[in-house]
Prior knowledge:
Blueprint: H1 6-20, H2 25-93, H3 107-117, H4 131-138
Amino acid sequence: MFxxxxxxxxxxxxxxxxxxxxxxxxxxxxxVGLWVGKARASFQSxxxxxxxxxxxxxxxxxxxxxxxxxxxxxRQVRDAVDSGxxxxxxQARSPGDTGAPAAGxxxxxxxxxxxxATGGEEPKAGSEAGPAAAAAGARKPAAGNESGQx
Length: 150
């Protein structure tokens, strides 16, 4: 803060001793010490308040940036959902030769298609479903031949 050397303090003390006198000098030093303490406390509180404001402004900036990013992400998701719905509507109108299931296709319909492609057996409830189950079913031994040898 202030750059005061030892010699400067000594000169100030000698002048104060001459001006005030030895009887009142301790009371004066106590009063000056209290004022200096109050000034330091005041400067420290101002400094803390400024730091809090700067920190709060930084938090507000961060909050604004996060809100902007959230709105952008929401817009992207909304656009993706809208484009997916429009594709589904186009496919529902002309399911043709795109190879994709129509918008009204259900999981049961696709499992029936899988079953017809794997020999006509539809997977049972609680059993494995899909191509892996069909491959496992193809490896089972025939009913009359339990040993698995041909």
